[in-house]
C-alpha cells in the first residue's frame, strides 16, 4: 500500500535564530511567501569549522538510525527536518517509464552538463528497456522572466500527460510543495536535483551542502578583515540555507566583518557585474574574503581583476573548470577552499535514484544527503584542468559515479541495486 505521511513544516516567514552568538545577522527571508519554509543553521563551533546542526533539530523522527553510521555523518549540516517517506511503501511500477525533467533557466556549465548527461543516460536506459519515448523536458527560457508558477504548471502538465517520474531543479522549492504533493498522491515521484522542497512529504530531496564547508574554510583561512557575501537567486529555498550557514561560519570568526552583500544569481556574468559595482562604489575598502554560494567564483575573480584589485580568497562552493584552472595557476600565492562535483555526476546519480523509487526499492527517508569532496591547495590538481580560460565552460574533473555510485546509493534504500543493474 502507498501510505502518505505527515512531515513537519517550518512556519513560513520565520527565521530560527543562529545559536551561541550575540551578533544580529540580518538574515532576511528574501522572497519568502506564505508557501515558503526557512532553514535552520546552528552556530559553527569555532572559527574555520562548518556549522553542525543538532539531531534534535534536523532529525525529529529519529530516521538517521536507519542509515549506516558513516552515512549519518553526512547530515551534520542538513538544515531541514529530515522526513519519513511514503515511497517506502510504494510497490513500484513496471517499466518502461515515461520521465520528465524540469529546470530553471540555464545559467551555468553545471546546469548545461546536467541536461546533456540526462539525455545521454535516458538513451542508455531506453536501450535497457527502463524508459520509453522521449523525455518530457521543460527548461525555463529566461532568468528575467522565470517564475515558480511556470514550474508548478510544468509539474501539473507532466502528471496529466502520464509521466511516471520527474527530476526537478526548483526555482523556489517551497512554492512547489503543493504541486509535488499532488504529483506524489498520483503516484508520480519527484526527485529534487541538488536542492530541497522542504514542505512536501512526497518530495525526494537530494542535496549536498556544498557551500558552507568552503565558507567555513575560507573564514578560518582569513580570520580577520572585511567579507563580501555574494548570494545566489533570491527566494530560492536552499539559497537561504546556504546563506544561513555562511553567516554562521563568518560569525564564528570574531575578527571578520560582513562589509556587504550582493546577488549574483548563480551566474558568472551577473556575479561579475554585482561585485564590480560594489568595488567601484566602495573605493578604498579592502575586501579580505568573498563568500559566494555557488558556481560564481570565475565571475568574481574577473570583477576584482577588472577593478585592478588583488583577488582575495573566494569560497569556491560549486567549483567550475575555469576558476579551478585559474586557482591552479596561482597556487604559489593564492589559497582558498572549494567543494566540487559536476553536472554530469548529478544527472547520473539522481536519475538512478528516480529509477530505484519507480522500481519499488523503498527509500528509507525523504532526504538524501550527498557528501561532496572538499578541495584545497593540497588536492586541487585532482579536480582542476590546467590552462583553461577563466570563462571556460568546463567543469571539475572526476568519475561519472563519483558523486554517489550505485554502491553509495544502496545505503539509502531498503532494497539495494538499481533496476536491471542500470
Secondary structure elements and pairings:
Blueprint: H1 55-58, H2 69-72, E1 99-103, H3 109-127, E2 136-139, H4 148-160, E3 165-168, H5 173-185, E4 190-192, E5 203-207, H6 212-222, E6 225-231, H7 237-251, E7 256-263, H8 268-281, E8 289-292, H9 297-307, E9 316-317, H10 321-329, E10 338-339, H11 343-358, E11 367-369, E12 374-375, H12 380-383, H13 406-410
Parallel strand pairs: 1-2, 1-3, 3-4, 4-5, 5-11, 6-7, 6-8, 9-10
Antiparallel strand pairs: 10-12
Provide structural commentary.
33% of the residues lie in helices and 12% in strands. Helix 3 packs across helix 11 (343-358) and helix 8 (268-281) runs parallel beside helix 9. It is of the alpha/beta class and 422 residues long. It starts with 54 loop residues before the first helix and ends in a 12-residue tail after the last helix. It has a six-stranded parallel β-sheet with strand order 2-1-3-4-5-11, sandwiched between helices. Strands 7-6-8 form a three-stranded parallel β-sheet. A three-stranded mixed β-sheet has the order 9-10-12, covered by helices on one side. Strand 6 (225-231), helix 7 (237-251) and strand 7 form a beta-alpha-beta unit. The protein has helices spanning 55-58, 69-72, 109-127, 148-160, 173-185, 212-222, 237-251, 268-281, 297-307, 321-329, 343-358, 380-383, 406-410; strands at 99-103, 136-139, 165-168, 190-192, 203-207, 225-231, 256-263, 289-292, 316-317, 338-339, 367-369, 374-375. The chain has a domain at 212-339: Response regulator (Rossmann fold, 3-Layer(aba) Sandwich), CATH 3.40.50.2300. 54% of the residues are buried. It is built from 13 helices and twelve strands. The protein is globular.
Amino acid at each position: 500500500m502507498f501510505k502518505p505521511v505527515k512531515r513537519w513544516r517550518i512556519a513560513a516567514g520565520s527565521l530560527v535564530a543562529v545559536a551561541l552568538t550575540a551578533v544580529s545577522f540580518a538574515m532576511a527571508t528574501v522572497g519568502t511567501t506564505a508557501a515558503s519554509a526557512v532553514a535552520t543553521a546552528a552556530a559553527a563551533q569555532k572559527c574555520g569549522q562548518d556549522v553542525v546542526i543538532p539531531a534534535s533539530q534536523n532529525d525529529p523522527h529519529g530516521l538517521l538510525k536507519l542509515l549506516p553510521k558513516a552515512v549519518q555523518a553526512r547530515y551534520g549540516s542538513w538544515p531541514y527536518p529530515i522526513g519519513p517517506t511514503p515511497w517506502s511503501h510504494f510497490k513500484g511500477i513496471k517499466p518502461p517509464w515515461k520521465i520528465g525533467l524540469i529546470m530553471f533557466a540555464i545559467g551555468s556549465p553545471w546546469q548545461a552538463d546536467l541536461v546533456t548527461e540526462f539525455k545521454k543516460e535516458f538513451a542508455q536506459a531506453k536501450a535497457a528497456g527502463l524508459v520509453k519515448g522521449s523525455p518530457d523536458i521543460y527548461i525555463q527560457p529566461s532568468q528575467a522572466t522565470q517564475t515558480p508558477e511556470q514550474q508548478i504548471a510544468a509539474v501539473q502538465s507532466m502528471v496529466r500527460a502520464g509521466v511516471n517520474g520527474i527530476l526537478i531543479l526548483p526555482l523556489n522549492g517551497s512554492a512547489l510543495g503543493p504541486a509535488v504533493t499532488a504529483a506524489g498522491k498520483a503516484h508520480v515521484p519527484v526527485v529534487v536535483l541538488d536542492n530541497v522542497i522542504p514542505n512536501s512529504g512526497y518530495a525526494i530531496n537530494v542535496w549536498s551542502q556544498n557551500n558552507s564547508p568552503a565558507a567555513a574554510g575560507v573564514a578560518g583561512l582569513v580570520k580577520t578583515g572585511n567579507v563580501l557575501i555574494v548570494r545566489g537567486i533570491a527566494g530560492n529555498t536552499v539559497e537561504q540555507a546556504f546563506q544561513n550557514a555562511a553567516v554562521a561560519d563568518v560569525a564564528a570568526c570574531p575578527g571578520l566583518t560582513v562589509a556587504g552583500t550582493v546577488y549574483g544569481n548563480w551566474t558568472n556574468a551577473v556575479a561579475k557585474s554585482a561585485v564590480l559595482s560594489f568595488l567601484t562604489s566602495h573605493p578604498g575598502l579592502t575586501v579580505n574574503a568573498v563568500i559566494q554560494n555557488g558556481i560564481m567564483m570565475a565571475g568574481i575573480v574577473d570583477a576584482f581583476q577588472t577593478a585592478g584589485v588583488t583577488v582575495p580568497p573566494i569560497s569556491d562552493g560549486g567549483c567550475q573548470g575555469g576558476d579551478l584552472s585559474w586557482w591552479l595557476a596561482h597556487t604559489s600565492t593564492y589559497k582558498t577552499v572549494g567543494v566540487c562535483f559536476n553536472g554530469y555526476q548529478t544527472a547520473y546519480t539522481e536519475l538512478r535514484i528516480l529509477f530505484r523509487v519507480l522500481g519499488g526499492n523503498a527509500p528509507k527517508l525523504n532526504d538524501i544527503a550527498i557528501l561532496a569532496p572538499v578541495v584545497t591547495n593540497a588536492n586541487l590538481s585532482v579536480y582542476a584542468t590546467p590552462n583553461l580560460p577563466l570563462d571556460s565552460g568546463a567543469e571539475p574533473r572526476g568519475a561519472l559515479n563519483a558523486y554517489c555510485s550505485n554502491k553509495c546509493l544502496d545505503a539509502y534504500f531498503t532494497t539495494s541495486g538499481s533496476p536491471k543493474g542500470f
